[in-house]
Design brief:
The chain is α/β, with parallel strands linked by helices and 279 residues long. Helices cover 26% and strands 27% of the residues. Strand 7 and strand 8 form a beta hairpin. Helix 1 (19-35) runs parallel beside helix 3.
Length: 279
């Protein structure tokens, strides 16, 4: 019988002046989440081991899984026997740069990697201007894996703004969608929690948004407020602005309960409209 509960932790990590210092801090927090909080699945935020900057992506990029960040995450996952969603860090492959999330299993194996599909290009004059597409290449593949019978999917930050993206994961049987996310401080207060609730409610799934802590000394200031929602669209827990371990226990019985009570997934009018995942 599959477990009815799963302990997880979202690590809202602070920033550090070097990649090595950021990795060392992450390892400390991962150990705390597993040993002190009892988390079986640990999630890291977007761009946690370097500055979130178009200038920095190339300097910080590494091979996945051969680079130093991946090697460190694989080792700690095996040491603790946990599932580890490694947040995101810049990847270089065949001369191209990607914003990539690597997932490691309890034996230290690379379960898979997801490359950010929707690149963050936003221009709100005087408030926030950013262009990931000026240096990054978009991914094309979805990523799923299972932890104790729970099927999990991965997206990255801006991906969550596209309802079709989450709906494809729903079609793939995903019940928990994870987004390492570094929203800005302008759209964050308006949209961050709202989008988490919407994606969870639309698809009757758990949704986690794992953010870096806020650092006002950076050119790009992340919003913080990592958030976890249940399949009813309720916020189970949220962090603040500072570094924090956000721990929770998922009640997996909710998944079938809501599908029975409000069976929207069975009531879609496929004779009128449909979602098509292209190969």
């Amino acid at each position: 019988m599959a477990p009815s509960k799963l302990k997880i932790a979202l690590l809202q990590l602070g920033s550090f002046p070097t990649k090595q210092a950021a990795i060392a801090n992450a390892l400390t927090q991962i150990r705390s989440a597993a040993k002190d909080k009892g988390a079986k699945l640990v999630i890291l935020p977007e761009c946690w081991n370097s500055t979130y900057s178009t200038d920095e992506f190339g300097r910080s990029a590494e091979k996945i899984p051969g680079g130093e960040t991946s090697l460190a995450l694989a080792k700690i996952a095996e040491e603790l026997g946990i599932w580890l969603v490694g947040g995101t860090y810049p990847e270089v492959d065949a001369g191209k740069l990607y914003n990539t999330c690597a997932v490691f299993g309890p034996k230290g194996e690379l379960v898979g990697k997801y490359r950010k599909m929707h690149l963050f290009d936003m221009d709100i004059p005087g408030i926030c201007t950013f262009s990931e597409s000026s240096v990054l290449t978009p991914g094309k593949e979805f990523l799923t894996f299972s932890v104790e019978g729970l099927k999990i999917g991965v997206g990255i930050c801006y991906d969550q703004r596209f309802p079709e993206f989450a709906a494809v994961y729903r079609q793939l049987g995903v019940d928990f969608l994870i987004f390492p996310s570094a929203f800005d401080t302008y759209t964050g207060p308006m949209h961050f929690e709202l989008i988490a609730q919407a994606r969870a409610l639309d698809n009757s799934m758990f949704v986690a948004l794992c953010a870096p802590a806020r650092d006002t000394t950076k050119d790009y200031v992340a919003y913080g407020y990592s958030t976890l929602c249940d399949p009813w669209g309720r916020v189970l827990c949220r962090a603040g602005e500072k570094p924090e371990i956000l721990s929770a226990e998922l009640d997996l019985t909710l998944l079938e309960d809501i599908k029975k009570k409000i069976p929207v997934l069975k009531q879609k009018r496929n004779d009128v409209y449909e979602l098509v995942k292209k190969k």
